Amino acid sequence: MSDTPSRSNLAAVDAAHHLHPFTNMKKLNADGTRIIQRGEGAHIFDSNGKKYLDGFAGLWCVNIGYGRTEIAEAAMRQMNELPYYNTFFGTTTTPTTLLSEKVCARAGPHFNHVFFTNSGSEASDTWFRMARVYWAAVGQPAKKTVIARRNGYHGSTVAGASMGGMKYMHEQGDLPIQGVVHIGQPYWYAEGGDLSPEEFGLKVARELEEKIDELGEDNVAAFVAEPVQGAGGVIIPPSTYWPEIARICKARNILLVSDEVICGFGRLGSWFGFQHFGVEPDLAPIAKGLSSGYLPIGGVLVSDRIADVFINEVGEFNHGFTYSGHPVCAAAAIENLRIIEEERLVERVRDDIGPYFAKAWGSLADHDMVGEAVSVGLMGALQLAADKSTRRRFEKPDAVGSAVRNHALANGLVLRATGDRMLASPPLIISHEEVDTMVRIARQALDAVWADMRS
Ligand SMILES: Cc1ncc(COP(=O)(O)O)c(CNc2cccc(C(=O)O)c2)c1O
After folding, report:
1. pTM greater than 0.90
2. 70-342: which CATH topology?
3. Under the cellular component aspect of Gene Ontology, which terms does the record hold (predicted)?
């Protein structure tokens, strides 16, 4: 049956058949969905030919930018040779094995093993089970509880959504599951009060020690955190935060889990976020920049402390996915990492475009509506404020953030709004001129919304 009628009316077909994630479908069907047709470099184009500078790299993930045909060619070669085989029952495939070596080579001396998944959420549920299996194998089975953070994000699977600190997710489906508790987040602008950022960083880190004391150290398996919270609003912790977290985890014998799904693969100007903050985690979920989103793949970096127990004590870890280490996805990821390495994109973020972005994006702090303009590497946020002199927030943060986002989008720039924070996470290949364009359109959007609010 010809698909011409459907293709000519994709929005109507989408409304009739496609349920979108994190979307109010009634509103979307009324507004109509936007068909994104192709991408090139840091730009995407919709089905009407409108061009957008993708200041969000898809969903934090298109690190090498769009249109890199080398990846399609690598995927096609693998697909034509072997489109799929599994890694259960004593088998593997060449790209899966080579990718595991390549990922570990960038993760530092303590990481020599990776467990592959299809997404970041599956990586969350994988390490969640690994942590409990690890403690049981070393004779401390009561160490089951995971401590996570309010406003953290770790995906949409049951454990991932439970460890996430988003109340609106917990309300749907009776989460969090037993064995997951939350402490505060290092969000100084909103919660620091009269403390300096450094004082606040120590205070909120020490909530971890208080929670461990409350639960009993012998009941706590792990603490999980994103190096920089992404979906929570690009919350960059004060300098005192991570050293104190690392000290507490070591002193109190709980596993430290660094969620690298966003911060990994160059986003912060280092291969992984934990390296940027000088931390040595025990486990680290990965996804997104691993393949730059060209094909779905995720995983868990497993430190020697954990891997040695799984190899020598646990025996069979009864966990895994049909597509764990999918050969075509692995081939695409290998090519993606080759591009990141050969074009020195991590170093570029650290030494060139990251500092350039910080200066340009930081200049927006002079706007009456901007309370802070912060960034690390190519991950930035604008905190919108009703009164920046007192850090007073807007009454309707979501409405303000959406208004700025929609204005930017109408003028050809994709930004993410989470409440009253405007988030940027452009492809690592973005040029200086494109950063200038991002900032120009963002400023225009701020001017327009601020003027609307005062009219
Ligand atoms: C830190 C972190 N951990 C786990 C996940 C889950 O990964 P998957 O989506 O591949 O299952 C994420 C994902 N992060 C994510 C996903 C979708 C939207 C947004 C947003 O900020 O709007 C963020 C993430 O940001």
Report:
1. yes
2. Aspartate Aminotransferase; domain 2 (3.40.640)
3. cytosol
